[in-house]
Design goal:
By secondary structure, the chain is α/β, with parallel strands linked by helices. The protein has 15 helices and 14 strands. It folds into two domains: 2-194 and 383-396, Rossmann fold, CATH 3.40.50; 197-381, Glycogen Phosphorylase B (Rossmann fold), CATH 3.40.50.2000.
Length: 399
């Protein structure tokens, strides 16, 4: 089958950002499917132009086409909307040139590209597969970035329009199933987030990374991911302030995003010597950094809607064999508890996070055991190959 994926934020393994779709596309290609991806030339994580060119082929059976996009993702919410709308239009015209398509795969967020996927599917008489990776616009409203009542009304209309018209819906968290069903979805399948265990070595202790930053005897706690409003990294800075008397603990914030400059300025103002900011790295390099961690942080703002999420970084941490300091409640907390691979920290509570980090630092053998537990649980339940196999079955059934 020929699968056309419309995904503004698509990132290949040699780029920073979430690589779920590149990993899934590679698996589909290995199974004999042809995959064409229409993506933005602007990195969704960093806002910089991608090094990749139109027509690139990162693997046999996969072709990536780049659609021009307004480059202002990190300026403001209004600029982000313009970036989304520009890609929605340009990806449509690029997609019209792609021939002999069987399935058009739209993914949200941003939700606007879902409209492109629906239109292309109907014009090409192909099946429309719509994927929900977070509950937009609910999350945007909860965080406070979407406030205009007219825009909110339009956003909900668009969400339900796409849910009702999808030939097949898929979600990456069990917490989303009921929501999309209530929104009018006819058929919903869970294809959860996960990780490729082969990309991580839990028995590599990252000595090169630790040595290059003089972390030799430190208890290193890494956050790897976006630095945005939703990520609540101010709480991590407040926790670092509470921990500064313990000179063994070092916190590393790896990644990029709209809030990074503000976070760096605040850390400087707080005179934090136990926090290090590092730039984002491609996915195929993240394993070497997580190998140098003793524990890893996953955090979101204390918003009720976020209890429904399966953050991909948690599965990367588990694949790396590192215990999780989890400041997210809900369905992902259930995974971490079932795996016995981390410590829960009350979302929004810096003292709780500081205590969670201290509990791991003061019992390093237990921390190591948790990391091993997480790796084992991921291999059994959230291996990317197992998940990709479910997707391949789902798509093959859409003929």
């Amino acid at each position: 089958m020929h699968i056309l994926l419309i995904h503004q934020a698509f990132a290949a393994l040699d780029e920073p950002g979430g690589t779920r779709h590149h990993e899934l596309a590679r698996f589909l290609a290995q199974k004999g499917h042809q995959v064409t991806v229409i993506a933005s030339p602007v990195s969704y994580l960093t806002g910089t132009s991608s090094a990749a060119d139109a027509g690139e082929k990162p693997g046999e059976g996969i072709e990536i086409l780049r659609a021009s996009t307004y480059n202002a993702l990190h300026k403001s919410f209004v600029h982000r909307v313009f970036a989304f709308l520009s890609f929605m239009l340009s990806s449509f015209f690029v997609g019209m040139k792609v021939q002999n398509v069987d399935v058009v795969w739209g993914t949200s967020p941003p939700i606007f590209q879902g409209l492109t996927a629906w239109a292309l599917a109907r014009l090409k008489e192909a099946k429309f597969l719509f994927e929900v990776r977070d509950l937009w616009p609910d999350f945007a409203i909860a965080v406070g970035v979407l406030k205009n009542p007219v825009l909110i009304k339009v956003a909900f209309w668009l969400e339900h329009f796409l849910y009702r018209r999808a030939d097949q819906m898929m979600v990456n968290s069990p917490g989303y199933v009921e929501h999309v069903q209530k929104g009018g979805a006819r058929s919903v399948e869970l294809i959860p987030n996960g990780a490729d265990p082969e990309m991580f070595n839990p028995f590599d202790f990252g000595m090169k990374f630790r040595g290059s930053h003089r972390f030799k005897n430190k208890f290193v706690v890494v956050y790897a991911g976006a630095h945005g409003m939703s990520n609540d990294l101010d709480v991590v800075l407040d926790a670092a302030k509470l921990l500064e008397a313990d000179q063994e603990i070092q916190i590393v914030l790896l990644g990029d995003g709209k809030e990074k400059a503000n976070l760096q300025a605040r850390a400087l103002e707080m005179k934090l010597k136990n926090v290090l900011f590092l730039p984002p790295v491609p996915k195929n390099e993240i394993g070497a950094i997580l190998a140098g961690a003793d524990a890893c942080i996953a955090i979101l703002k204390p918003i009720e809607a976020y209890k429904t999420t399966y953050p991909n970084k948690v599965f990367d941490y588990m694949a790396a064999g590192r215990p999780v300091v989890l400041a997210i409640d809900g369905v992902i907390r259930e995974v971490v508890a079932a795996a016995d691979c981390g410590v829960f920290s009350t979302p929004g509570d810096a003292r709780s996070m500081a205590d969670a980090i201290t509990s791991l630092s003061s019992n390093r053998d237990r921390a190591v055991d948790m990391g091993i537990n997480g790796r084992r649980y991921l291999e059994e339940h959230f291996s990317r190959e197992v998940i990709a196999g479910k997707l391949e079955n789902l798509i093959s059934a859409m003929k």
